[in-house]
Design goal:
Length: 575
């Protein structure tokens, strides 16, 4: 919903002006609610009205000045009068200035607090203009210089014949830009790949590696040296693999008090020698406590309730399964958030510790000191824990200790590599765990994958074309699931995609969300484990008993506009 007018008012404005029909408005209202976006945004995104039509109508009704910034040129010195963090927090953009007046576009021109703040900060009279949400989202991007542009500026500086000290300072700036950009762009991994005469800086964003920029060989060597210094590694060692850790502090201006506020990144560094130089991969971790909920990671309400029920148990195991990079650890942290109370003792053994959680004892695996998952788990059991999280069950020894801990009064959370929830149970048997122990200790198994989310700024709806219809028909499982939600002819199926914009780097996607299946240990499934039934037979039983598969959960997210059909099929084997 638009902040300034209610849905009924917007309906009167648009239908009364013959811009949309009553039926179109009613359908749009339902879709906006289902997609959890504002009604005015959906109307613009779906192409029913233009952003300017909505903005002008609302402004006229509320007797406000109106501005559309789409084609407005804003000088940098004017834009930066309002700090970016203030602009984002309050939905305000400064776009023009005279010696006495500052013109600002605002999503809510009635926000007197921010108007007074800007008047006090600038000493100018602040004139407000109504700005739509869609227009604001595009305008805010003007603050953002891309990582590529910022790195190019430093590279140009390095060509200017600087002194040795100035060169060192420029390299420090370059590495800092890479670190900061990793945070602002939601990067999970930074790659510096050496080639014969250059190196390529690459960012992994939402699971996809993106080339950012190429840097000269001589600059690459100094950048790697700087990273080694930060990671407390040997700068004179070029023939052996090295591991290190960087704690990188960033500051940002406070919203109203202008006091610097610190954010900190923990960056795990791996450097390996190659034929063309040293290859650097940096995993960007967060040292801040992340506010993770089951909704945040993508559980449906029905599946979230199953997880909450399992978390109420004081004994047994909650297992999360999926391939590397499928968000298993994040899911475990979201469960820990539910369990983290002052009256329980929670301990974890992880490799690495990805998020710091206040009130939880977290142990980092260290192979050099023989602190393995198994040895760490043995030590944890002697620490009087109520709840234990094991980062990963990799072998018989760790599995055996975890299962026995679950049998002796502990709730154990862990991850396991398996294709789906049903495959996890035979996998434990393959590790040498007795069937009766698996049947009596496992409470639930969560299978998951990650799919990219459609960018909300450029999301649009479209009708499935003939080629896509034929493709769907060639995939029986997908076809069957879609048939449950639509008509037999696959006609007029409306799905969603991102058109591509600056906010999503023209990919159409921003961030990722999980698709899940939750296998609950029923009496029938326990009997199947004791009989050594196959994972296919266990899966069949789980579905008969009401389990939503990853494919079904994914199809639901396709229809509600969270992700695209193509993206779902990229990560789920749905033949």
């Amino acid at each position: 919903m638009c902040m300034l007018v209610a849905a009924d008012q917007l309906k009167l404005l648009l239908v009364g002006s013959n811009l949309v029909s009553l039926q179109q408005f009613t359908d749009a209202e339902a879709e906006a609610k289902r997609l959890n976006i504002s009604l005015d945004e959906y109307l613009v995104d779906s192409g029913l009205v233009t952003d300017m039509h909505v903005g002008q109508l609302i402004a006229n009704t509320q007797r406000l000045n109106y501005i559309n910034l789409t084609k407005q040129k804003i000088p940098d010195e004017v834009l930066n009068i309002v700090p970016e963090v203030v602009a984002r927090s309050h939905g305000v953009i400064s776009f023009a200035k005279t010696p006495t007046v500052l013109n600002v576009g605002m999503i809510d021109p009635g926000d007197i607090e921010i108007v007074h703040f800007l008047e006090k900060r600038t000493g100018l009279e602040v004139k407000t203009f109504f700005l739509t949400t869609t227009d604001f989202k595009k305008a805010i991007l003007r603050y953002e210089a891309s990582a590529e542009e910022a790195i190019k500026a430093v590279l140009e500086k390095l060509k200017e014949g600087l002194s040795k000290l100035e060169q060192q300072e420029a390299v420090v700036d370059l590495v800092n830009i890479i670190m900061r950009s990793s945070y602002t762009n939601g990067v999970s991994d930074i790659h510096i790949d050496p080639k014969e005469t250059k190196a390529v800086i690459r960012f992994r964003i939402d699971g996809i590696l993106n080339d950012i920029i190429e840097i000269p060989k001589e600059v690459d060597d100094t950048v790697v040296s700087r990273i080694k210094i930060l990671g407390k590694m040997r700068t004179d060692e070029h023939r052996m693999a090295q591991d290190g850790k960087i704690s990188f502090a960033m500051t940002e201006e406070g919203v109203l008090d202008n006091k610097p506020k610190e954010k900190r990144l923990d960056i795990r560094v791996s450097i390996v020698p190659t034929t063309h130089g040293e290859n650097v991969v940096m995993r960007v971790l967060s040292s801040q406590n992340r506010s993770l909920t089951l909704d945040d990671v993508g559980f449906s309400e029905a599946d979230a309730e199953k997880v909450r029920a399992a978390a109420k148990s004081t004994i047994g195991m909650i297992l999360v399964t999926g391939p590397t990079g499928s968000g298993k650890t994040t899911t475990l942290y979201s469960v820990l958030k539910i369990l983290n109370r002052r009256d329980v003792n929670i301990a974890t053994i992880e490799d690495p510790v990805e998020y710091s959680i206040e009130g939880v004892t977290q142990i980092q695996v260290n192979v050099k000191t023989d602190l393995t998952f198994a040895n760490g788990l043995r030590a944890i059991v002697r620490q009087d824990p109520n709840i234990i999280m094991v980062g990963e069950i990799r072998d018989h020894e760790t599995a055996d200790i975890a299962v026995n801990s679950a049998m002796t009064g502990h709730l154990v959370l862990s991850t396991l590599h398996a294709n789906d929830a049903a495959t996890t149970l035979p996998r434990l048997l393959d590790m040498g765990i007795e069937p009766f122990l698996v049947a009596s200790t496992v409470n639930i198994v969560i299978g998951q994958r990650l799919v990219r989310k459609i960018c909300e700024n450029c999301r649009t709806s479209y009708i499935l074309d003939e080629e896509e219809k034929e493709f769907v028909k060639s995939l029986p499982k997908v076809h069957d699931e879609i048939m449950k939600r639509t008509n037999a002819e696959l006609t007029n199926i409306r799905l969603y995609k991102g058109q591509g914009c600056k906010m999503c780097e023209n990919t159409g996607f921003v961030n990722r969300v999980g698709i899940f299946e939750i296998l609950t240990m029923s009496r029938r499934i326990k009997e199947q484990i004791l009989l050594h039934d196959s994972s296919d037979e266990i899966m069949k039983t789980a579905i008969e008993e009401g389990m939503t598969t990853m494919l079904q959960d994914g199809i639901e997210k396709v229809f509600n506009g969270t992700t695209t059909l193509k993206e779902l099929l990229r990560v789920v084997n749905s033949g």
